Amino acid sequence: MKFLGKFVLTLVVLGAIIVGGAVILPGITKNRQSQLAMAIDNVNPLVTQETVYASTSAKSVRQFIGGAGEKEYTYRLVTYNVKGEARTVVFDAQWRLKPNKFLAITTKGQNVESWKAIGRVPANVQSNLAMS
Prior knowledge:
It is a single chain. By secondary structure, the protein is an alpha+beta fold. Helices cover about 35% and strands about 35% of the residues. The chain has helices at about 1-30, 35-45, 125-130, and strands spanning about 50-55, 60-65, 70-80, 85-95, 100-110, 110-120. β5 and β6 form a beta hairpin. α1 packs across α2.
């Protein structure tokens, strides 16, 4: 009986740590461009996918040769969601982004799932992008 009580207590404590971590970690990883932050957000079930928008006016922060020998570029962009909340994301592209265009970026926390060039952004986002 004592074993069962300790086992249940261990499960409760472990569950509290996991749930607490899932709730607290998104706040800790926000705007952190590390591989660890991206990995944590990717597996955290409480972090949902979101589309954010960015202007391509920023220059790449890094250029390097990719695994297949092609040039790749790393971009660090300030993005805005439809609520107007800002967030910085980092992602790699296999070509230079054309300046003064817009991107729709699908993220899961700090993890960039995909991105694509778009012609227009929502009006409330456009005003934020114009100020940044």
